[in-house]
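**User:** Here is a favour to ask of a fellow structure person. Please take any protein you like and set down a full record of it. No explanation is needed for now; the record alone will do.

**Assistant:**
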Amino acid sequence: MSIKTDELYPRYLNHLESQNLSTGAFELLKISSTKFEEFKFRYENNPTFQEKIDNSFKQISREEKIDEVIVDDFDLFLEELDDPKTKQEDFDFDF
């Protein structure tokens, strides 16, 4: 089984990104099945480490979801601007 298909692989990548690694070291660790298995063992057997990884991963996921909502709303706004049925008064704001 490829490590990339493991459900913990995204958490492993997040963990690697949180460390100050050189680009080369990061790329090697991304594909190292030995290092991934060490991470997985530690994750499954150390509750403190697991909680730290999960909290970090949740924060990243939350930020990505917020970014998606902002982009979707902005795209909708741009579509409304391009719609010829939309009047300019709809976008005049008094500050």
